[in-house]
């Protein structure tokens, strides 16, 4: 595998909601196996950026190429692209009336990626991977927040995505559960998953990110290695933000 293969290429992305210009001019490439952490104040456009990548939002202008496919082109089969992009949100959005295993097998079976039997086998492997093999038959409301989020990650992985997008996956969790979710993400990174992660967990960013991207006001203000951004930020807005969160 070519480690410098570009998985996500965003060029001059703009996104408006009515008159509100949320993303003003974003250009960024993310390579295979890279872990990019997006930092920035609330309202800076981080979620909107992630949502544009898998077309949960239509872009106002610019181009987004995922795995060589132009997701901003209306002729592209966006569902095919989405099958390769797992997304994990702050709120886990598990189906409450389905068991943990059913939550995980639903999409691969519905989308005919796997048979029920294959999906269950894979689902059990994924549950073991996130440390929840004993929870297959339970319902989401019987799980802690950290366990729910680990199920949500397993559910996303069930489609065998080669890109994972995380939008503040630990922000809704009690502090004692943050670590177990970050550990699952750390292992995914170690296994070579291409990841874009919005988080305020600076420790995770420092240890796991290949690159930190600091966003403010709909722009990328600066980006670099964790060392560069966390220890030697250049821009006043980055310094100001880090002073508040560190
Ligand atoms: P962040 O994730 O960095 O906190 P968001 O991308 O969620 O920022 O939001 C950026 C801005 O876009 C905010 O001002 C927010 O209110 C606005 N916004 C986000 N989604 C919508 C929407 N669907 N309609 C209108 N405004 C939105
Ligand atoms: Mg957000």
UniProtKB/TrEMBL annotation:
The ABC transporter domain, residue ranges: 8-242
Top-level lineage group: Bacteria
Entry annotated with the keyword 4Fe-4S: no
Pfam family, one: ABC_tran
Matches recorded under Gene3D superfamilies: P-loop containing nucleotide triphosphate hydrolases
PROSITE patterns xref list: ABC_TRANSPORTER_1, ABC_TRANSPORTER_2
Keywords: ATP-binding, Nucleotide-binding, Transport
GO function term, MF aspect, one: ABC-type amino acid transporter activity
Name recorded for this polypeptide: ABC transporter, ATP-binding protein
Record organism: Marvinbryantia formatexigens DSM 14469
């Amino acid at each position: 595998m070519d480690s410098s293969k570009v998985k996500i290429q965003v060029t001059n992305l703009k996104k408006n909601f009515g008159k509100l210009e949320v993303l003003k001019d974003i250009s960024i490439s993310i390579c295979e196996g890279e872990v990019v952490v997006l930092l920035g104040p609330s309202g800076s456009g981080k979620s909107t950026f992630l949502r544009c990548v898998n077309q949960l939002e239509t872009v106002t202008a610019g181009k987004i190429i995922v795995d060589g496919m132009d997701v901003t082109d209306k002729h592209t089969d966006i569902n095919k692209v989405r099958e390769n992009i797992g997304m994990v949100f702050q709120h886990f959005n598990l189906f409450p009336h389905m068991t943990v295993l059913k939550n995980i097998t639903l999409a691969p079976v519905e989308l005919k990626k796997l048979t029920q039997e294959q999906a269950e086998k894979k689902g059990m492997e994924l549950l073991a991977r996130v440390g929840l093999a004993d929870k297959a038959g339970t319902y989401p409301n019987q799980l802690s927040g950290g366990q729910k989020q680990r199920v949500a990650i397993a559910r996303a992985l069930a489609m065998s995505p080669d890109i994972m997008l995380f939008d503040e996956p630990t922000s809704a969790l009690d502090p004692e559960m943050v670590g177990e979710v970050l550990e699952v993400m750390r292992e995914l990174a170690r296994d070579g998953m291409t990841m874009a992660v919005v988080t305020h967990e600076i420790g995770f960013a420092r240890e796991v990110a290949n690159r930190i991207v600091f966003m403010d006001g709909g722009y990328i203000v600066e980006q670099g290695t964790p060392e560069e951004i966390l220890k030697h930020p250049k821009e006043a807005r980055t310094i100001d933000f880090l002073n508040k969160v560190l």
